[in-house]
Amino acid sequence: MSFHDAAVPAFLQILGALDGILEKAEAHCKAKNIQPEVLLSARLYPDMFPLTPQIQTVCDFAAKTCARLTGGEVPTTADTEKSFEELRQRIARTIDYVKAYKPAQFDGAESRDVTFPVGPSNQMTLKGQQYLTGFALPNFYFHAAIAHGILRHNGVEIGKRDFLGVR
Questions:
Q1: How far is CA 18 from the centre of its chain?
Q2: Nearest-angstrom CA–CA distance, 6 and 4
Q3: What pLDDT, in 10s, does the model give residues 110-148?
Q4: Assessment of whether the complete model's pTM goes beyond 0.85
């Protein structure tokens, strides 16, 4: 399996699923007369990110992983989203960005040195294979699952099929 095939379809599947989940969350707010900010700022535990940064982080892992594995310039995106619509727009931009990567761009990714930040002041370097399978994909799925969990915990009627993007 190529690195493109291991990363890009997985990112696109979950990003698309999160878009659908956010659509359901917004509808839930309207149906139950809940201010959207309540869900956007909800978190599973006080020391965890709220929903909005969870979605932003998922988008960042998808885009930055593709850039790092292909040796490209790592994009930066300001975290300015304040609504479901703005988060869905960020997801859409990330999907477009990830879709633009071609399989040949990932050639040699498994042995490429990938340097990335870990925390506010440290960096780590791993080979592409270790980076993708041991760091990038687990973090991508973690933040996506937490976003799903926040919404489910707050009463949004979503399940595993929604997480997987099966509509």
A1: 8
A2: 5
A3: 999 999 999 899 999 999 999 999 999 999 999 999 999
A4: yes
